[in-house]
Design a protein that fits this description.
The complex is a heterodimer of chains A (158) and B (150).
Chain A: H1 5-15, H2 18-23, E1 26-31, E2 34-39, E3 46-48, E4 53-54, H3 56-74, E5 83-90, E6 100-109, E7 113-121, E8 130-137, H4 146-154
Antiparallel strand pairs in A: 1-2, 2-6, 3-4, 5-8, 6-7, 7-8
Helix pairs in contact in A: 1-3, 1-4
Chain B: H1 2-15, H2 19-22, H3 26-31, E1 34-38, E2 41-46, H4 63-82, E3 89-97, E4 106-115, E5 119-127, E6 134-143
Antiparallel strand pairs in B: 1-2, 2-4, 3-6, 4-5, 5-6
Classes of the chains: A alpha+beta (158), B alpha+beta (150).
């Protein structure tokens, strides 16, 4: 087994998100610096049938999840953090038949709000497919729906 | 494929039925988007689907699905109202989540605020219970090709 508890928490978290399972999103890397997820290429997420390019929506799901999960990297205990807003700038279309990596990190954590940013790339992180910024609300540990998900993340039985 | 797409678009216009057109877009089928024409307006619907859930405990729709739904609505809205030859290319997308998306049907409407020669600005509103209480609002820029009104 790996010795990275953050990676283990991230893997458990993503396994609980149904839509991420449908898209086949997995955790590539997780550290205090941030998190990287992978979205595999699949014909079912194609948005433009003429080119085979994946739809921006699948990329948005990847980046929303990556930014949301970046909060795991900075919070000492699991908290549910709903997205306040998200912005995606599309640099160029993702190349078909290749996975897309989504990296995200938190650059400011306050008592109520977490600011995140990230980018999506394929072969070269220096040539991103998209840039993202997202703001998340800290709801604390007592929010409805937090406890079950929290124990999933920490690996406890609900 | 281009010809195929255009034919289906023309048929969709004629009959006010967009299913055949949506069937050509795999991502649209994956999340299950539907489109109806009401008068001169388009109403989009995303039926409740377990595969679109993010937080399983609440349960709530995945924010990325709500975003993908709204982005697709905007592209289809432009496609239908500008008569573009293919789906317009997205430049940027910015969305505000206002309420949790519950596990129920979601609706969306679009408004083109500005359509220039090369770029269009579209706003999208998504709701579940009533249009007066949106679950998310979004704004997108698209690059559009040669415009030829149908």
């Amino acid at each position: 087994m790996t010795e990275n508890p953050l990676l283990e928490r991230a893997k458990r978290f993503i396994s609980a998100l149904r839509h991420c399972q449908v898209l086949g999103i997995t955790v590539h890397q997780a550290s205090e610096e941030g998190i990287t997820l992978v979205l595999p290429y699949s014909p079912m997420i194609v948005g433009d049938p003429q080119t085979g390019v994946i739809h921006g929506g699948a990329l948005t799901s990847l980046m929303d999840t990556a930014c949301g999960m970046a909060t795991l990297c900075v919070l000492p205990e699991f908290e549910v953090c709903p997205t306040l807003d998200l912005r995606i700038d599309y640099m160029h279309p993702a190349e078909p038949h290749k996975p897309v990596y989504g990296f995200a990190q938190c650059y400011r954590v306050t008592a109520d709000v977490i600011f995140t940013r990230g980018f999506a790339y394929q072969d070269d992180p220096q040539q991103p497919v998209a840039h993202t910024v997202g703001t998340f609300m800290r709801m604390g540990k007592r929010l409805k729906g937090a406890q079950g998900l929290g124990s999933t993340v920490t690996g406890e039985q609900v | 494929m281009t010809h195929h797409f255009k034919t289906r678009l023309e048929q969709a216009h004629e009959h006010g039925n967009y299913k055949a057109l949506l069937d050509l877009i795999p991502y649209a089928k994956l999340i299950g988007i539907e489109c109806t024409r009401i008068g001169d307006e388009l109403l989009f619907r995303l039926p409740a689907n377990k595969d679109n859930i993010g937080n399983p405990i609440l349960p709530a729709l995945h924010g990325g699905v709500i975003a993908g739904f709204m982005e697709l609505c905007a592209a289809l809205h432009l496609l239908v109202f500008t008569g573009a030859p293919g789906l317009p290319k997205i430049i940027d997308f910015s969305l505000d989540y206002l309420r949790a998306g519950q596990f129920r049907d979601t609706y969306a409407k679009c408004q083109v605020w500005r359509q220039g020669r090369r770029v269009a600005n579209v706003s999208i509103t998504a709701w579940q219970s009533t249009a007066a209480e949106p679950i998310a609002t979004a704004r997108a820029h698209f690059k559009i090709g040669e415009v030829s009104r149908p």
